[in-house]
Amino acid sequence: MKFSRRTFFKAAGAATAGIAAATSVPKKMLSWAEETAQKDMQQIPTFCELCFWNCGLIAKVENKKVVKIDGNPMSLRGRGRLCGRGNAALGALYDPDRLKHPMINVGKRGEPVWKQATWDEALTLIASKMKGIKEKYGPESIALIYHGTGASFWKHLLHAYGSTLSAAPSFAQCRGPRDVGFYLTYGSDVGSPEYYDFSKSKYIVLFGSHLGENAHNSQVQDIMNGLADGAKMTVVDPRLSNIASKADHWLPIKPATDLALILAWIRIVIEEGLYDKEYVAKYATGFNELRAAVQQYTPEWAEAETTIAKEMIVKVAREMGKHAPNICIGAGRYTAWYGDDVQRSRGIAILNALLGTWGRKGGYFFATGAKVPEYPGLPAYPEHEEVAKLDAAYPFAALQTTTSIRQATINGNPRPVKGWFIYGSNLMKTMPDKLETIKAAQNLDLLVTIDTMPMDIINYSDVVLPECTYMERYDNINVGKFNGEAEIALRQPTVEPLWESKPSWWMTKELANKLGLAAYFPWKDGEEYIAKRCEAADISFAQLKRDGVIIKKGGNPYITADHQPEFGTPSGKIELYSTQLEEAGFDPIPKYTKHPQPPQGHFRLLFGRAPLHTFSRTTNNFMLTDLQKSNYLWLNAKKGKEMGLKDGDFVYLENQDGVRAPGKIKVKLTQRMRDDAVYMNHGFGVHAKAMSRANNQGIADDDLITKYAIDPIMGGTAMRGSFVKIVKGA
């Protein structure tokens, strides 16, 4: 089976006056800690939206306000537990800075003057602009850029309108290289949540994966259960992350040399006969070609590249071989690093294949899925117009990339893009080189933002639509795939929407009416939409409302004599040597390439998640800002002292292009960091005045990413190629 998209899957005032004009949250809505009678206590299950893990939760509601959040013990994603962000759902619900009313910008993009509008005014304006764009440029000139569950209604609306142009930053700016690398190798990606069998692993290897700090709930539980049962672990990371502190071996690798280490491990596993010979012979192709290709990658060579001692490289390779196949070499999640990221992910996939981990206990399990049909009886979408592909340069761009949409918006090639709908994604912080994003925004005929908070991106919007939070709405059904089980989860409102905020199912239905597309939105409300889909799937909607989740049992998650794997590759086997890549003009087996290193006086800029924050989505949450108000710059302690810095000093950062990030950041001197790189949490340095607690707190790494490489295989943007120097004083 060939790789393809189909198979992969005051009214007018100062800049923020309109937003600030709305009153703050009524005091009574914030007083959940007060003593109240519990006779009206309700327990309403739903699921979290503060990260993609979507853990099940139970809202305790008294007198029409949520007073407490607990984990739903029936949820496979959380198992009754919530992370700090999930427990802060009340802070998202009752944030006084929330978007409260539809807003129309009567000023300029970037210098907005907000007019508070009615829903009818806002949607009428949007519909008028959409009709004009369609008439002049065609329907495929409007794009949806999204993040979050409610985006499904907007995708449905644009499909009905005639546009299939939609993209999530999570592909080109996050996990796309990983998914494509594994798809080219196994004909399957690794899932979301990932199909890691950590709880049964005997050996675990992670590359720059900050488990625990990213708070992937059940995955963190699994890895800790595996370690408690005696699993060994190696973590490869320039920084001693929290999960690295639990490891048997921390390998503080030189940034941008991970593939060198992987290829050396592949060579050792092959040459010392540590690979699973029966597994490789039965399920894989290209072994001989692989063996010949990796001969140059000796442990001595890898030591020179990575700065990891050759003895340690050999030791870990032998430990992996000893514990195979009950070993999981994690594929990571954020993998858009250096521009050759598909090949690095291919290397990880190949190493797993040699050790026989795919479909084996303690490795990667075969996930159990469940299908919930779409709403019955909907009319077919309009026949798709044949238009020039924006990602034609990237033959394995399995999904549309946001960067290609942005580029087409700027230059009109290969076709014009004149309208953006941005759902739940603060584009100023999710894409590299924000000046390009601003340039694209200025070239649009329509930019609509749908969000709960006044993020940076609204400053460039024409219309802002206030969505109610996930605690106040029905959303699309969420189906999770797990080891032998599938979870069908319901999001339902726990309280009525505050102010004039609305759910996406309502916004899209009303906008469809104005566009003459009412037939595509026949449901009365969100509850009927879900109920009809459950009926079509023979699922009890009453049970789903009561429990929040329904668990479906599945098949065997492992290879057995009676349960043989299927690989969706052209050969029907694991492809160590990729003919698909070869035919497209790429290396069929990963090759190591050197990447630029920091200039004199500079450090490589690394960034990642904070345990208490989901990037900029939570940096204004008043239940979390007191715990972490800003980010810190992790700097090697010895290096910092040589520079005359003390722990806690404030500094400025300037990148290799002479661009200085607005604001300043506090230094954290630590022995947990290599001396050629610095690290900070992503999501801070918000530039949005209406975000009263987050605005200008810390420094934004995205302000410093002014250059990026693009992975030629699938179009991913490399965002670990920036270098910064530390500037003291003003």
Task: Describe the 3D structure.
- It is a single chain.
- The chain is of the alpha/beta class.
- It has four domains: about 15-95, N-terminal domain of TfIIb; about 105-170 and about 385-555, Rossmann fold (3-Layer(aba) Sandwich), CATH 3.40.50.740; about 175-365 and about 565-585, 3-Layer(aba) Sandwich (Dimethylsulfoxide Reductase, domain 2), CATH 3.40.228.10; about 605-730, Barwin-like endoglucanases, CATH 2.40.40.20.
- Helix content is about 30%, strand content about 15%.
- It is built from 22 helices and 28 strands.
- The protein has a seven-stranded mixed beta sheet with strand order 5-4-16-15-14-6-7. The protein has a six-stranded mixed beta sheet with strand order 22-24-23-28-21-25. Strands 10-9-8-12 form a four-stranded parallel beta sheet.
- β17 and β18 (about 485-490) form a beta hairpin.
- α9 runs parallel beside α14.
- It is globular.
- The model is unreliable at about 5-35 (pLDDT under 50).
